[in-house]
């Protein structure tokens, strides 16, 4: 074990990377050699440890397993060249983690531990960053309650982890979405804006029902009236209506996506009209019927810019016949991924490069 004053570091004796096909890694199935773990006890975060990736032993009474007091983040590391791996807006992920933690009564880790932890992990495991276009090393920071007590109360102890996994596309083809009049993802005053496990757990059953009907995901509507479009659960949603890029405004029930914010910033920079506003599913379906719905796409870290093939609502469908994305989605996809891979200028300072050979 070595220590650099701020981190304890135990390295693997040999890497497992040769056992993984980085050209076709799937999504989140294999994990790189090292992980980070930090303990919170006695009112403070302790010294972080980087160690070989492996199982953790927990009591069946672990608070998180029962009540879901946990939050996570999703980020990616992009291969730029043999000496450089890029992170995309990592400080934004830390800021969102802090907000999610606050909502879930979890003490947040500092930006230093978050960013330095990721940087150290990437330097150690940089050979796990896929070089093939479109593939990345997905970074999953998460924090969970660790009290060994099955009482529904705020925990006194926590663990923060970062694990990394080589990934390909989250969606391999354009997605088919359906609304639901029966289920809701999040209510006003709830935890919809926090990246917390329960939001994803709540969406599984409706998503399974949607899949049984031939759709990939639910396009969530507001929980009160089932009228206003919210998000997809795995990504935010965008429409191009009559030349205007429209996305639901952040209302407290929608995850404030970092890809979402980047799409908006980039589109505005290009002079494209952008509106973050409430929009009804009826308006979307009507635009589909009268020919003004030019395209629709999802935006998220895992999904990147995911084209939508179909939106189904109340027995009607709007279909897009692009082979992949429409022109606006494609242009945004290409520009964002080019910035992420270091192939295009980075006018907004979104990239944090990591030198992996120093
Ligand atoms: C991400 O986009 O990073 C997420 O956390 C979404 C998840 C469904 C993979």
From TrEMBL:
Its EC number is 2.6.1.42. GO terms for molecular function: L-isoleucine-2-oxoglutarate transaminase activity; L-leucine-2-oxoglutarate transaminase activity; L-valine-2-oxoglutarate transaminase activity. SUPFAM superfamilies: D-aminoacid aminotransferase-like PLP-dependent enzymes. Its cofactor is pyridoxal 5'-phosphate. It holds the Pfam family Aminotran_4. InterPro entries: Aminotrans_IV (IPR001544), Aminotrans_IV_CS (IPR018300), Aminotransferase-like (IPR036038), B_amino_transII (IPR005786), BCAT-like_C (IPR043132), BCAT-like_N (IPR043131), BCAT_family (IPR033939). One of its GO terms (biological process) is L-leucine biosynthetic process. The keyword Protease does not apply. Pathway: Amino-acid biosynthesis; L-isoleucine biosynthesis; L-isoleucine from 2-oxobutanoate: step 4/4; Amino-acid biosynthesis; L-valine biosynthesis; L-valine from pyruvate: step 4/4; Amino-acid biosynthesis; L-leucine biosynthesis; L-leucine from 3-methyl-2-oxobutanoate: step 4/4. It catalyses: L-isoleucine + 2-oxoglutarate = (S)-3-methyl-2-oxopentanoate + L-glutamate; L-valine + 2-oxoglutarate = 3-methyl-2-oxobutanoate + L-glutamate; L-leucine + 2-oxoglutarate = 4-methyl-2-oxopentanoate + L-glutamate. NCBIfam families: ilvE_II, PRK13357.1. Acts on leucine, isoleucine and valine. Belongs to the class-IV pyridoxal-phosphate-dependent aminotransferase family. This is Branched-chain-amino-acid aminotransferase.
């Amino acid at each position: 074990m070595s220590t650099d004053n701020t981190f304890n570091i135990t390295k693997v004796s040999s890497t497992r990377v040769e056992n993984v096909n980085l050209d076709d890694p799937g999504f989140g199935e294999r994990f790189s050699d090292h992980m980070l773990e930090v303990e919170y006890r006695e009112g403070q975060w302790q010294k972080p440890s980087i160690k070989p990736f492996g199982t953790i032993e927990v009591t069946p009474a672990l608070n998180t397993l029962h009540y879901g007091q946990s939050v996570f983040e999703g980020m990616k590391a992009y291969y730029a060249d043999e000496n450089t791996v890029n992170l995309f807006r990592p400080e934004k992920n830390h800021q969102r983690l802090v907000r999610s933690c606050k909502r879930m009564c979890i003490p947040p880790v500092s930006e230093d531990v978050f960013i330095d932890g990721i940087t150290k992990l990437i330097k150690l495991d940089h050979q796990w960053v896929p070089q093939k276009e479109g593939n990345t090393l997905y970074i999953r920071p998460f924090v969970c309650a660790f009290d060994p007590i099955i009482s529904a109360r705020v925990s006194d102890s926590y663990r923060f982890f970062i694990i990394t996994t080589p990934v390909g596309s989250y969606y391999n083809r354009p997605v088919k979405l359906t609304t639901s009049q029966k289920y809701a993802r999040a209510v006003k005053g709830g935890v919809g804006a926090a990246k917390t496990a329960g939001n994803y757990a709540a969406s599984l059953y409706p998503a399974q029902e949607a899949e049984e009907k031939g759709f990939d995901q639910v396009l969530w509507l507001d929980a009160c009236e089932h009228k206003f479009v919210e998000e997809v659960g795995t990504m935010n949603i965008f429409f191009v209506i009559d030349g205007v890029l429209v996305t639901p405004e952040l209302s407290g029930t929608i995850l404030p996506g970092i890809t979402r914010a980047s799409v908006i910033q980039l589109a505005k920079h290009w002079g494209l009209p952008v509106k973050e506003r409430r929009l009804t599913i009826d308006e979307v379906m009507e635009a589909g019927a009268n020919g003004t719905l030019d395209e629709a796409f999802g935006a998220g870290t895992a999904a990147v810019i995911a084209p939508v093939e179909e939106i189904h609502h109340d027995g009607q469908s709007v279909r897009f016949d692009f082979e992949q994305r429409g022109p606006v989605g494609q242009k945004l996809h290409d520009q964002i991924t080019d910035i992420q891979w270091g192939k295009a200028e980075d006018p907004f300072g979104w990239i944090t490069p990591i030198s992996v050979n120093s």
